Amino acid sequence: MSSLSNLNMDHSETLEIVRYRPGGHHTPHVDYYKSEEEILEETDGMYGNRFAQGFLLLSSTKIGGNFVMPWLGISVVPHPGSLVIWHNTNIYGNMDNR
């Protein structure tokens, strides 16, 4: 991931693999903590907010299965090997809740 994103991964979370079954989904959400207390509670102080995230698509689907960011109007059709990387912060380093 480091070579693909040009980001230092030394302080990153471990890789998470998720498999969605037919009908599986996430409701629209943002991946950031709103307060220092929330960070400590959720991560035991090991991590902070995510500067950037990546989503590697490993398979395709016959129907649906798009990776969607509705507040940005983005929908990515899954193709094996596709990688979506996005920043969670704006240009000032503040969390971007879109």
How would you portray this structure in words?
- The protein has helices at 2-5, 36-43, and strands at 52-56, 67-69, 74-76, 83-87.
- The chain is α+β, with helices and mostly antiparallel strands.
- Strands 1-4 form a two-stranded antiparallel ribbon. Strands 2-3 form a two-stranded antiparallel ribbon.
- The chain is globular.
Short description:
The protein has 98 residues and is of the alpha+beta class.
Give the end-to-end Cα distance, rounded to a whole number of Å: 23 Å
**How large is the share of residues in beta strands?**
15-25%
What would you call the structural class?
Answer: alpha+beta
Q: Level of helix content?
A: 10-25%
* Count of runs of 4 or more consecutive helical residues: 2
Count the strands? 4
Q: What's the story with the biggest beta sheet? A: 2 strands, antiparallel
List the topology elements:
Elements: H1 2-5, H2 36-43, E1 52-56, E2 67-69, E3 74-76, E4 83-87
Keyphrases for this structure?
alpha+beta, two-stranded antiparallel sheet, two-stranded antiparallel ribbon, about 10% helix, globular
